[in-house]
Amino acid sequence: MARLINPPGKWNGRTVALDDGHGMETPGKRTPYIQEIGRQIKENEFNRKVVQYLSNILLDHGFRVLLVAPTDEDTPLSYRTRAANQNNADIYVSVHYNAFDGSFGGADPNGIELYVYPGYLNRPAGRLASSLAKYLRQGTDQNFRGIKEANFHVLRETDMPAVLTENGYMDNKREALLMIDERFQKEVAEEHARGILEYFGVPFKRGIDYLSLGDTGAEVKEMQENLLKLGYTMNGYGADGSFGPATEAAVKAFQKDNNLEVDGFYGPKTKAAVQIALDNLNKGEEEMEKLAVVINSFADFPAVEALVIRKNALIALRAVAEKRQVAEQIIVAGGGTDGLKGSNFIDLTGKTRYETSQNIKDYLAK
Ligand SMILES: [Zn+2]
Predict the structure, then answer these.
(1) d(C-alpha 163, C-alpha 359), whole Å
(2) Global pTM?
(3) What residue numbers bound the domain in which 39 lies?
(4) Which segments constitute the MurNAc-LAA domain (predicted)?
């Protein structure tokens, strides 16, 4: 059963059909046994992840995504292409990993290649393949084997421009191990996304390491918990793991407060800023003194010296105490509490310096 997914925001009018190649258990579609990890890697472990990441990026850019084989079953090729044709997909992209002789020894080829139907190099499919190749050649260093022609079913039976990508060799050990490297999977997904966006003339906004409206799951929940710790309350929804409008508003508020671009996307920059804010918060809690005595200048120190020693208090200048809360409880010895950061004050300020020192003596006598 193919699955058509609508973007969380406005649809841009384009539908991309994505094909993850094979079923999970399709015979032969796996690496040789890999000593280092004690097993074989199935081709679909890679293809499926790339399609999943890729579809998220496309959805975030307003595309509709048609997953022509969303299950682990070995969906027949005729079914895949029929689903794309019936849903009027604008393009068809099939993600694969190559195989040569099923052994890590021998000729041991490596690298990426792309396929279009014979004679289509100068047609839209060829243009799509060129856009994809431009980005697939970036990132992790791999041999580029070129854009080739082949009479594959998914290239022949599709009514729309179709490209099949081979993103490495299962029987080259280095590239085999890349298949289960999450960073590589995300990189390949983002490269596909950039190629597809360029083909349609849609500007690239963000890759897979972004959370935005419509996302759900553990990463969203963690982000929400962090925002809550920092005082962004999300209209009381709490950390529910669902990136809704209240969460977006909280992200935007945080971005505004931290001089970031206010776009509501939780990307690498915003994430880093949240981490810094949390570190500062934790530092603040650890270092927060129990008690401080605030004075206007060090000329006032003799008047409060006994107080500071007896109460084991920190001494702080008013100018500092106006910028940040210097302790949980603050004794004010002159000048009153106006403008000081904090909520728990003991104000010993008198009308005169003499009265203040008298108040301090009375306080210590209690
Ligand atoms: Zn394949």
Answers:
(1) 84
(2) 0.67
(3) 3-200
(4) 81-197
Regarding whether 276 and 146 lie in a shared domain, the answer is no
How many angstroms separate the alpha carbon of residue 170 from the centre of ligand 1? 10
Mean pLDDT within 60-89: 95
**Which residues pair with residue 186 across a beta bridge?**
none
Distances (CA, A) of 268 to 171, 261, 335: 35, 12, 45
User: Where a domain ends, among 266, 285, 304?
Assistant: 285
Residue in the block written with tokens 């190649």? 21
Contact 153, 84 (CB under 8 A): no
Structure confidence by residue, pLDDT tens digits, 272-300: 889 888 888 877 666 678 899 998 877 77
pLDDT, average across residues 217-245: 91
Task: State how many domains the chain has.
Answer: 3
Find how far residue 238's CA is from the centre of its chain.
20
Q: Is the pLDDT of residue 195 over 80?
A: yes
Same domain, 295 and 255: no
Residues with CB in 5 Å of ion ligand 1: 21, 96
Report CA(21)–ligand 1 centroid distance (Å): 5
Distance 78 CA to ligand 1 centre (A): 15
Do 304 and 353 touch, CB atoms closer than 8 A? no
Structure tokens given for 197: 């966006």
Where does a domain end: 241, 257, 285? 285
**Please, which residues bridge with residue 92 across strands?**
17, 162
Query: In this structure, is residue 248 part of a structural domain?
Result: yes
Q: For the chain, what is the mean pLDDT?
A: 91
Residue 220: predicted pLDDT: 93
Together in a domain, 351 and 333:
yes
In a domain, 212, yes or no: no
Please check the confidence at residue 340 and state whether its pLDDT lies above 70: yes
| The two structure tokens encoding residue 281 | 């918060």
Q: Which residues contact 362 (CB under 8 A, 6 or more apart)?
A: none
Residue 242: strand pairing partners: 216
* Distance between Cα 308 and ligand 1 center (Å): 75
Question: What's the CATH code of the domain at 331?
Answer: 3.40.50.12090
